[in-house]
Amino acid sequence: MKKIEAIIRPEKLSEIKKALAIAGFIGLTTYEVKGRGRQKGIVLSYRTSEYRVDLLPKTKLELVVDDKNVEKAVEIICDIGKTGNMGDGKIFIMPVEEVIRIRTCERGDGAV
């Protein structure tokens, strides 16, 4: 199993969540986060002065999937999350050693 962590634009969450659900990826967790990447923030203007906002609002999406479904989930996130502009986000994939459903103590793929 793998854990997919995706940092995405907040306005893309609804579309990505819907597409993941249609593909069978129901369980996920989201967080409202702030961050910056290569763009180092943005410069905004207020009245006559400019100022830099270096931590931009993003959404962090986490889901655990079976190894055979990783590419399918990543493809959905990339296809829908991509605008072609800086700030579209990143995806991180990590191995998951074990999953346990607390309610039933079920382990492995069935617990996801």
What tags apply to this protein structure?
Alpha-Beta Plaits, two-stranded antiparallel ribbon, alpha+beta, 2 helices, 112 residues
Task: Report on the architecture of this protein.
- The protein is an alpha+beta fold.
- It has a single domain, classed as Alpha-Beta Plaits.
- It has 2 helices and 6 strands.
- The chain has a 4-stranded antiparallel β-sheet, covered by helices on one side.
- Strand 3 and strand 4 form a beta hairpin.
- The longest helix has 12 residues.
- The chain is elongated and about 60 Å long.
- The mean pLDDT is 91.
Please bin the fraction of helical residues.
10-25%
Q: In sequence order, what are the helices and strands, one letter per element?
A: EHEEEEHE
Proportion in β-strands: 35-45%
Low-confidence stretches: none
State the end-to-end distance.
Answer: 9 Å
CATH class: Alpha Beta
What is the rounded Rg?
Answer: 17 Å
Mean pLDDT: 91
Provide a brief overview of the structure:
This protein has 112 residues and is an alpha+beta fold. It has helices at residues 13-22, 70-81; strands spanning 2-8, 29-35, 42-46, 49-53, 56-65, 89-95. It has 2 helices and 6 strands.
Ordered list of secondary-structure elements with their pairings:
Blueprint: E1 2-8, H1 13-22, E2 29-35, E3 42-46, E4 49-53, E5 56-65, H2 70-81, E6 89-95
Antiparallel strand pairs: 1-5, 1-6, 2-5, 3-4
Helix pairs in contact: 1-2
